[in-house]
Design a protein that fits this description.
Length: 200
């Protein structure tokens, strides 16, 4: 007698709980702490004046910020996989294999939502650089990415300033362009010259 897996499976509705165990511990692995530290240190090195602290305060801010998002990923994935499994199961002639295949495809499609927190956003390096400027009393300017399609907030950030403290950092997530922001931070020339002398 042929097995009708589809019918057997159909007795069960999947829910997010079915997927949470395999996704256990995922959140902790999503954020690459070393990569953040590297990015911040790269930004710090771009400033050749005196460094008055190490990278930790800046790394902590970014990692803490991104972990809050990463923590939500497993639950969101589990929910989406359950929905997909239910939809796959409802398909005419569905089998265990067809359900598993659709879950696999879904997981592949969700890959970017899993990996997007792994690498430090662009702004961590600018924050590393900007923190050095700040500690040396050098004002900062927000510089728009060349030729980009800007969100509503970045042009007004660029029009304001120079800033003693920037309202946010590129890619930190406070602007509508969120972590896609590729704006930059530069030193205000006048306060740079005042702090470091024109030869610096
Ligand atoms: Zn931007």
């Amino acid at each position: 007698m042929r097995h009708h897996f589809g019918r057997v499976l159909a007795r069960k509705d999947f829910n997010a709980g079915d997927f949470t165990t395999p996704l256990d511990g995922l959140a902790g692995e999503l954020v690459d702490l070393d990569a953040y530290r590297k990015a911040v240190n790269l930004g710090r090195k771009a400033f050749r004046g005196t460094h008055r602290d190490d990278a930790d305060p800046v790394v902590d801010v970014w990692v803490g910020h991104v972990r809050a998002y990463a923590d939500e990923v497993p639950d969101r994935l589990a929910g989406e996989l359950a929905d997909e499994a239910n939809a796959a199961q409802a398909e005419e002639g569905s089998t265990v294999e067809s359900v598993l295949a659709r879950i696999d495809r879904k997981l592949e499609g969700l890959r970017s939502s899993v990996t997007r927190y792994a690498d430090p956003p662009w702004g961590a390096g600018w924050n590393g650089y900007g923190a050095q400027l700040q500690q040396n009393n050098i004002l900062m300017a927000w510089v728009l990415e060349d030729g980009a399609d800007h969100c509503d907030a970045c042009p007004s950030l660029a029009a304001g300033g120079p800033y003693e403290h920037l309202p946010t950092w590129p890619g930190y997530g406070d602007t509508p362009c969120r972590d896609k922001c590729k704006c930059k931070v530069t030193a205000d020339q006048e306060s740079w010259d005042a702090a470091l002398g024109e030869a610096a």
